[in-house]
Specification:
The complex is a heterodimer. Chain A is an all-alpha fold. Chain A has a domain of about 220 residues. In chain A, strands 1-2 form a two-stranded antiparallel sheet. The longest helix of chain A is centred in the last third of the chain and has 28 residues. Chain A starts with 12 loop residues before the first helix and ends in a 5-residue tail after the last helix. By secondary structure, chain B is of the alpha/beta class. Chain B contains 10 helices and 10 strands. Chain B is globular. The N and C termini of chain B lie far apart (about 40 Å). Classes of the chains: A mainly alpha, B alpha/beta. At the A-B interface, helix 7, helix 8 and helix 9 of A face helix 2, helix 3, helix 4 and helix 5 of B.
Chain lengths: ~350, ~270
């Protein structure tokens, strides 16, 4: 009844091609963004640091992988490693050039991940599907090996850990032990919003159509004049850039240092892939939904249930969380194999007509 | 007045594509043997023949999917050796497929927009912001695509994912996608297969209009002899990978070898 585009007329193609052509959507997004900016200062540091910050990091990585797997149809299991490349690149850059703003290095480190991604994307011209997934697995294992065996990467630290230095922006510590979760949160929020906007620009334009054409029917895509290798490598590059930035953000703004080889393991690759699949392949909103389901719901169950008065202990809550999350994943995939994003789109479609049947 | 009596412009004239002694074999299977014919600018050239005669293989050779082992293909007088499908696309050869090859996850609009890819050049940097040159280019091509959508009368399905469309409309969208490339030579592989009478008549009308409005040259594979006889200017008949007849529809229809190929020979 309230969600309806009746009376909103488009007078130019430009209006028609806007991100959110329906006014109510624009209002909704504005409210979400305003809430994301205004509410966290009133939240507990713990909530900001362990709920919101990781959620944004996962979302960014899922957006990145979605460009590759969802939009271009190339399955990748190397996400964790590409994120690691971003983290180590950022670490080396800030060690060598400590004077430069850390946020700049975080954004630049993505380019290193992009370059590595292109190299490991080369087999994608010849192999597809599960076989490509196995080929990207090689990237995961090889890069993980590098992270452990090349001491130069972690500045010859004996424990092999990344030690995040203190770095400030306009006098406010953004990175390092002195940075508050709130500042880190805002830094991540800015990066995630900006990069998501760029991703949405890319996928709606020429490049996005090129990728989707390769995904849906590569023979016909070639006939449209698309050079398959170039399109696929571009997808690897852009996707890895996003993953690399997500990795740098994860290490510098969330973890605040630590043994990176454990952080960027194959588990992370799988987690991000599941987020993309459950959220919805080929949907940027889906990336956020997926990250929410796999990250926020477990935390809610673990801490929320006891807080609401359900008398369960820590260990029980942990087990219960695994069971419920597993069941939810199965449930959502049965209800809508195309992911939460499709479910959301269907709901919106229904809402446009509600309360009338058609 | 039949469709063929409509005045047409430009008048069929110089040779656009010449196929000379093409032979194509897959291992021991000979798909094409020493096939030669030409396609003139502005004509509708039909390629017919019984199932398995090598018609689709012929189209695949023309647009670079297959590399024939022998023979030459000259397009616009320029002979070519190794060619990939995207080279054919950039030279102005578009095609549709027998079993629809649309991008099923994309809307009608996006599908037809992919036909414009070769004509879009704004660099990646601008694509990131979707402003300035990128947006202007997008709008400019959207205008062209909308004119094609109007031409094919598919305005109502503009934003529908093509996977959800009925078969006849999908065929029409595929024609639209090929037209968006503004091809000089359009290869249609059974554009009317599986259609009912009205859909076929619509499609015939679109094909004739394409020739008239855009001056496109068309090579057409079709099984419906009525359609072939009505639409085409000249017909090539293939059987078991060999050319058995070539000429106007009337000539071909009365050719004894063609009749034998279609009806069988008494033993």
């Amino acid at each position: 009844m309230f969600y309806r585009e009746a009376g909103q007329f488009k007078t130019s193609y430009q209006d028609d091609m806007a991100v959110f052509p329906i006014r109510q959507d624009r209002i909704g997004v504005a409210i979400i963004l305003a809430a994301a900016c205004a509410i966290p200062p009133f939240l507990d540091n713990f909530v900001v640091g362990t709920v919101l910050v990781p959620f944004l990091v996962f979302s960014l990585a899922a957006v990145g992988l979605n460009l590759l797997t969802g939009y271009t149809g190339l399955l990748s299991l190397g996400t964790g490693a590409f994120m690691g490349v971003g983290a180590y690149a950022c670490y080396k850059l800030t060690t060598i050039f400590p004077g430069v703003n850390i946020l700049v290095w975080i954004l630049v480190s993505g380019f290193f991940a992009a370059a590595i991604g292109v190299v490991f994307g080369l087999p994608s011209l010849r192999i597809k599907g599960f076989y490509l997934a196995v080929a990207t697995l090689a990237a995961q294992f090889f890069l993980e090996w590098c992270f452990v065996r090349i001491p130069w990467l972690f500045n010859y630290n004996i424990s092999g850990a990344i030690e995040v230095p203190n770095r400030s922006l306009f006098g406010i510590p953004v990175v390092g032990p002195n940075a508050t979760p709130l500042t880190r949160y805002y830094a991540i929020l800015a990066i995630v919003v900006a990069l998501t906007w760029i991703a949405s620009n890319i996928v709606r334009g020429r490049i996005g159509r090129m990728w989707m054409a390769v995904r849906d029917m590569d023979i016909a895509a070639e006939l449209m004049g698309i050079r398959l290798l170039r399109a696929k490598l571009l997808a690897f590059a852009v996707s890895s850039y996003f993953c690399g930035v997500a990795g740098a953000v994860m290490m510098f703004l969330w973890y605040g240092g630590g043994e990176a080889k454990d952080a960027f393991s194959i588990n992370l690759s799988f987690t991000i892939l599941f987020m993309v699949i459950i959220g919805g392949l080929g949907s940027l909103t889906g990336a956020f939904f997926g990250a929410a389901l796999l990250h926020l719901v477990p935390i809610f169950l673990k801490f929320g249930l006891p807080a609401l008065g359900f008398p369960i202990g820590g260990a029980t809550a942990e087990h219960l969380t695994h069971i419920i999350i597993g069941a939810l994943i199965v449930f959502f995939l049965i209800v809508e194999p195309h992911g939460l994003a499709r479910l959301w789109a269907t709901a919106k479609q229904k809402l446009r007509l509600w309360p009338f049947p058609y | 007045m039949s469709a063929r009596d409509l005045p047409r412009d430009p008048v069929p004239g110089e040779t656009l594509l010449r196929v000379d002694g093409i032979s194509l074999a897959f291992g021991g299977v000979k798909a094409l043997t020493d096939v030669s014919f030409d396609i003139r600018k502005g004509e509708i050239r039909a390629i017919i023949g019984p199932n398995g005669a090598g018609k689709s293989s012929m189209l695949n050779c023309i647009n670079g999917f297959y590399q024939p082992q022998q023979g030459r293909i000259a397009y616009r007088g320029v002979e070519r050796r190794q060619m990939r499908p995207h080279d054919a696309a950039s030279q102005g050869i578009a095609r549709t497929f027998q079993n629809i090859a649309l991008f099923r996850g994309m809307s009608t609009l996006d599908n037809i927009m992919t036909g414009r890819l070769l004509k879009m050049h704004v660099p990646f940097f601008w694509q990131l912001w979707r402003h300035g040159p990128a947006m202007r280019e997008e709008v400019e091509h959207r205008r062209v695509v909308e004119s094609i959508i109007e031409f094919l009368e598919i305005e109502h399905i503009r934003k529908v994912p093509v996977g959800r469309l009925p078969y006849g409309l999908q065929k029409r969208v595929e024609l639209g996608r090929a037209l968006a490339m503004e091809p000089e030579l359009l290869l249609l592989d059974e554009p009317m297969a599986g259609m009912n009478l009205e859909e076929k008549e619509d499609m015939c009308r679109f094909i004739l209009d394409v020739v008239k409005q855009y001056g496109t040259t068309i090579a057409l594979i079709e099984h419906d002899m009525g359609v072939v006889m009505d639409l085409s200017d000249r017909v090539v008949v293939l059987d078991y990978g060999r050319k058995i007849a070539d000429g106007s529809p009337a000539e071909v229809k009365s050719d004894s070898r063609v009749i034998d190929a279609y009806l069988g020979v008494g033993h």
